[in-house]
Structures are given as structure tokens and as C-alpha cells.
Write a structure and sequence with these properties.
Blueprint lengths: L1 H70 L7 H29 L7 H27 L8 H23 L6 H19 L1
Helix pairs in contact: 1-2, 1-4, 1-5, 2-3, 3-4, 4-5
Length: about 200
């Protein structure tokens, strides 16, 4: 009789050990699946943000060119031309704001002095400066006294587009993916951005 009790204890110990082992494997599998999900979600965020930055840059490049061309007129810009410029601004800002919204989601959990957080802050400051420059441009285009030139506008707008491109690229360096995959993605997005610029 005592031998039967010992066998039961051994069997119970084996069953408990197997149960704990299966539980540990399950927990590990769930954790791995969660981490893979996070990587996929981060990649989706980075791609969505990059696509919005590229869309904004393409629209801003049009705004830059049309506005610089309007500077060449000695007379105030007509209503139709001003409407086109305002539509471009609205479209570019909508894409930019969407990109910034995604970037802020990606920023959560990062140190305040991380490269990506700094890229976001720099891009926000440049966008605020761009809004002020647009007000100066409007005064010039309406025929008021103007101390701002088309060349300065081209340079300033190009700087903002470049800062936004830096934000786009820094997002991909956050990802927990193989380095070559991140660099390939950056290269493809840079190519699309360059095409939009030209």
C-alpha cells in the first residue's frame, strides 16, 4: 500500500511539472507573439507617418513653387491664385498634422532626449516658423510693403521640407527590425520623397 502512494506522488509530481512546463511555454509563446505584434504595429505606424510626410512634402513643393512664382508679379496676386495657394497649404498641413499625430504615438515611452523626440520637437518648431513666414508671404502677395524675397521663401520652405524628411527617416531607426530592412525602407521612402520634391 505505501508503494502505491509513492507512485501516485511521483505521477502527481510529473503531471505538475509538465503542467508548469506547458504553462511556461504558453507564456513565452504569448510574450513572443505580443513582441512580434508590437514590431508589426511600429512598422505600420512608421510607414503611415512616412507616407503622410511624403504627401505633405509633395504638396508643400507645389506651394513653394507657385508662391515663388507669384512673388514675380509686381501687382497683387489675384483671388484665384491666392485660393490655389491656400488650398495647397490646407492640404499640406492636413498631411503634416496626420504625420505628427502618428509620430507622437510612436514617441510614447521614449526618453525626452531621444533622437526621435528631438526630431519631432525640431519639426514642430520649424512648422510654427513656416506659419509665420506664410503670414509674411501673404502681406507681400497682397501688394503691401515687403521685406521678404522669393529666394528667401524657397530656401525657408526647402529647409522645412528637409526637417520633415529627417523626422521621417529617424522614425525607421526606432524599429526593432533587422538593420538592413530599416535601411531599405528608408531608401525607398527617400526615393519617393525625392521624386515628390522634383
Amino acid at each position: 500500500m505505501p508503494q502505491a502512494i509513492d507512485h501516485r506522488r511521483v505521477i502527481n509530481a510529473i503531471i505538475i511539472t509538465l503542467g508548469l512546463f506547458i504553462f511556461a511555454l504558453t507564456v513565452e509563446g504569448v510574450w513572443d507573439a505580443y513582441q512580434e505584434y508590437q514590431v508589426v504595429q511600429d512598422m505600420a505606424y512608421a510607414n503611415e507617418m512616412a507616407d503622410s510626410v511624403i504627401a505633405a512634402a509633395a504638396t508643400e513643393a507645389l506651394e513653394r513653387g507657385i508662391t515663388a512664382n507669384a512673388f514675380g508679379n509686381s501687382a497683387p496676386v489675384g483671388t484665384e491664385m491666392m485660393r490655389k495657394i491656400l488650398v495647397l497649404r490646407e492640404k499640406g498641413d492636413a498631411a503634416w498634422n496626420h504625420a505628427l499625430h502618428i509620430a507622437r504615438k510612436m514617441k510614447k515611452g521614449l526618453a525626452a532626449d531621444s533622437e526621435f523626440a528631438e526630431a519631432i520637437n525640431h519639426a514642430e518648431q520649424e512648422h510654427a516658423s513656416l506659419q509665420k513666414l506664410r503670414q509674411r508671404v501673404d502681406l507681400c502677395l497682397q501688394g503691401n510693403a515687403c521685406n521678404y524675397s522669393a529666394e528667401e521663401w524657397l530656401k525657408d520652405m526647402t529647409r522645412f521640407i528637409s526637417v520633415a524628411a529627417n523626422l521621417r527617416e529617424s522614425a525607421f531607426l526606432l524599429l526593432d527590425t533587422p538593420r538592413h530592412a530599416a535601411l531599405l525602407n528608408i531608401s525607398m521612402k527617400r526615393w519617393a520623397w525625392t521624386a515628390g520634391e522634383h
